[in-house]
Design goal:
globular, mainly alpha, MetI-like fold, about 290 residues
Length: about 290
């Protein structure tokens, strides 16, 4: 019977392990947790961002009360974020449908996967410029085909929906890829058992396939909620989040780095976003930990 020797870590090995653990930890603390905590702290102060932080004045919950009571863009921005979220849920269903279709190994499936996923690698700002070719009032594709003269990005009656469609173009491919990966790893014997039990293809998907992919469903839920909250790039490059495109993320930027320069008030808006996101992140972590147990 051979005895396996356990190699002890040398001093150099311990140094490498320590560096690999300590450096990423410090970066996360410095670039993620510290700014988040400072944002929460500053939300209880009134500060214009000029001079030393000691010039900040404690106001307690006044910034939050002002946001809810006397700041006109807040509730429209929150409503627009909710509309954005509901629209992304519809788009998520479209991504699931595309994944189911492409999972059937159709001719040219690789081409369609690439075509649908390609927008995902583009930034939202770049997507905004690309869709300008479609939405332009003078030379846009839609107005060229229909003969209308609607300014899709400029008219408050249409611009929110136009921007959501452009964002959905990117979001669909990402959701499709997640579910397609899940379908590729799905146990085929479960499908066969469902067919033997007399289930139709539709019943098999909703009663067997979809419930089994619960981890992916939770991930997609969290991603969709966070995407709707942090939607910023697209509306900012269009009109800086004004004129019908108010979003909470745009209001944060307007107050912190804009002409208003109200760091404390902008931090309160950012904290509200953080709290809403945290609710869904906690739900996701609870589900994951429960499955591991």
């Amino acid at each position: 019977m051979s005895v396996r020797r356990v190699r002890r870590l040398t001093g150099r090995d311990r140094l490498v392990v320590a560096v690999m653990v300590v450096v990423p930890t410090l970066l996360v603390l410095a670039l993620v947790w510290l700014p988040a905590l400072l944002t929460i702290v500053l939300s209880f102060f009134s500060w214009n961002g000029l001079g030393d932080v000691s010039n900040a004045k404690w106001v307690g919950l006044q910034n939050y009360r002002d946001a809810a009571q006397i700041y006109p863009p807040f509730w429209p921005a929150l409503r627009h974020n909710v509309i954005w979220l509901l629209a992304l849920f519809v788009v998520t269903a479209l991504g699931v449908l595309l994944a189911v279709i492409l999972d059937r190994e159709l001719p040219g499936g690789r081409f369609y996967q690439t075509a649908f996923f390609l927008p995902t690698v583009l930034s939202l700002a770049l997507i905004g410029f690309i869709w300008q070719l479609i939405y332009s009032a003078d030379q846009g594709l839609i107005n060229g085909l229909t003969g209308s003269s609607i300014d899709w990005y400029g008219d408050p009656q249409y611009n929110l929906w136009a921007v959501i469609v452009a964002s959905a173009w990117r979001h669909t491919g990402y959701i499709m890829l997640l579910y397609l990966a899940g379908l590729k790893g799905f146990d085929p014997t479960l499908r066969e058992a469902a067919v033997l039990d007399g289930c139709t293809e539709r019943q098999t998907f909703f009663r067997v396939v979809f419930p089994v992919m619960r981890p992916i469903n939770i991930i997609v839920l969290v991603i969709t909620v966070i995407e709707s909250l942090r939607a910023f790039d697209l509306v900012w490059v269009i009109n800086k989040g004004r004129n019908g495109l108010e979003l909470i993320s745009a209001l944060v930027t307007q107050n912190i780095v804009g002409e208003a320069s109200r760091v404390g008030f902008g931090s309160a808006l950012a904290t509200i976003m953080l709290l809403i996101s945290t609710v869904f992140v906690v739900i996701y972590l609870r589900v994951v930990m429960r499955e591991e147990d």
